[in-house]
Amino acid sequence: MNIDAIFNIFVLPLLRFPVVMVLIITSVTKHDFRGWLWPTVAYSLLLNTAVVANNKFKRRGPWVNLRKLENATCVVTGGSSGLGLAIIQQFISRIHNLKIVSLDVVPPKFTHPRLDFRDCDLSDPSSVDRVIKEIKKDYGEVHVLVNNAGIRGKYQNFCELQKKDVNCVFQVNVFSPMRLIQLLSPKKAEKRQFYAITIASTLGICTPARGSSYGASKAALISFHEAWTQELGDASNVRTLLVTPGQLDTAMFSGFEPPKQFFAPVVNPRELARQIVDKCSAGERGELSAPLYANFMGILRTLPYTAIYFARKASGMDSCLPVE
């Protein structure tokens, strides 16, 4: 049990339907709270109407659900393991007309007739350009792009970083996703349906000590995703989703014990992949953050210095990464 489970099981239902608590307290105690009955009902109606309206607004405009889109093609970077593999498996099992191209340097252990592995070194710009040409030649149009691949480099103090290592991190985490979006997304005159998923990280919002190159690359990834999304305006045929997870239960961040797991639980990649595919299929714009604390990381940066200082100390985030 962690804070996310407690929130989802107990807190969230009460926030959305406090009338239940009013009825329980009235029935099991001597206190009469029936005067709160209609105000809480009205509150629930307003809140849940706002939630529904928000979800509808994120899906505004014409959109063909992926399950009904004929001859659809999806490109996933870093699909051989971790979250990328989980996303591919979700697409394969749930979207039966979708062809998937996985770009990675290592073939996935998972195979399927609709999964096409292409050897691509995302740290090499010429390899990226080559595979883009191949995809356009073999598949024509791409309808879904999942920029998932990422590398973290070594956990090192900032002054010990090597230029070549930092360049490699930025090439894989920032420049290759930018190139893929530029060359695979439809031009303004095209009406092709296109959905772009950018897998960033909470470390791009709030970076711990010894994670500077990875955090900086994810911050850059978030910035260009946001700028491009705003350039799209209200276009219905091109939609984007920014994903900012906390620590995933994958090999990339293995080797140390995450601090305060009650408040910052490790994210299950299969569950996150399921949510991503749900939003992609329906054409839902916006952001997806997990676990619970990831939704509030931006607020931390707006607090006074003293509050930020003690919040970071209490979290243990700046002392958890080892020096490699």
UniProtKB/TrEMBL annotation:
Annotated Pfam families: adh_short
Gene3D superfamilies recorded: NAD(P)-binding Rossmann-like Domain
Alphabetical list of SUPFAM superfamilies matching this protein: NAD(P)-binding Rossmann-fold domains
TM regions (residue ranges): 7-29, 35-53
Keywords of the record: Membrane, Transmembrane, Transmembrane helix
MF GO annotations: oxidoreductase activity, acting on the CH-OH group of donors, NAD or NADP as acceptor
Protein family according to the UniProt entry: Belongs to the short-chain dehydrogenases/reductases (SDR) family.
Protein name stated in the entry: KLTH0D15774p
Species assigned in the record: Lachancea thermotolerans (strain ATCC 56472 / CBS 6340 / NRRL Y-8284)
